[in-house]
Amino acid sequence: MTTDAPLLTGALLGLCLGLGLALVILQNPWTRPRDLGARVDPYLRRGRGSDLLAGSLPPGRVQAVLRALVGPVLARVIGLLERLTGNATQLRRRLRLAGRRTGVEAFRVEQVVWGAGGAALGVAVAIAAVTMRGASPVLGVVLVVIGLVCGVIARDWLLTRAVRNRAARMAREFPTVADLLALAVAAGEGPVAAMERVARTSQGALPEEFAATVAEIRAGSTVTQALLSLGERTPLESLGRFGEGIAIAIERGTPLADVLRAQAQDAREAAQRELMEIAGRREIAMLVPVVFFILPLVIVFAVFPGLSVLDISL
Predict the structure, then answer these.
(1) Could you write out the DSSP letters of every residue in 158-182?
(2) Among the three residues 133, 163, 193, which one is the final residue of a domain in this structure?
(3) Which of 14, 35, 44, 130 registers the highest number of CB atoms within 10 A of its CB?
(4) In this structure, are 130 and 212 located in the same domain?
């Protein structure tokens, strides 16, 4: 136990030294490849004096130096995250489907924080394994890397789960919201006013999307474009068909109340089919409470009267 801690300390110091030397060799201005803009930019500047005569760096140059030092490392980290969890376009679409208003950069920062937390947990497990169990320091480094990767992937998995949960909530709300829209349109209101009424009087993920659609129409977008973008913003495929159906009905002059009632009926039938499919996939799982809980109780209630009669006769 007394010799393992120095081995771990030496391994960590060697790892830090190796990473530092690699960054110095690969990221210094003499070995790092320069793009065309960086090579041409010094020859395009006019009317600037020398910064050496000023005695100190201007305020803007400090951020520029920090960006030049840390920027390549962050670019490589972001590139690794994109290879693990998808590029910026896919991530932006997933954030929109999850109902989040934050950008891609904020989510990348969250992934870095989760990765740092996983790495810290890996460091704690590695120190405990090396000092208490006498494990190899290489195993400790592997545990740290595994914790880092697991933290990043866990944040991405939570985003996927948020998209799936939001789609399930919208599927449950869709038939009721479609009926409310049909009632409002049958009462004489227009499609935009009906969506605004539903968004104002209801709560949930789907009324929030209707509120965003109404706001988009108020901002100058056409009703057809807003309804088509409603399907693109939501993870529910039936809602995309719903928006397309209403847009086509508005363009062709079809009665909207009948279209909305048909959409609500289709949503209910789709929900029933989904429940039947889930029941078919989980048929064995549903047999577990029957076999292990209900059936033993039935046997006890069936056998106990006979046993009691035999006991009395004896």
Answers:
(1) HHHHHHHHHHHHHHHHHHHHHHHHH
(2) 163
(3) 130
(4) no
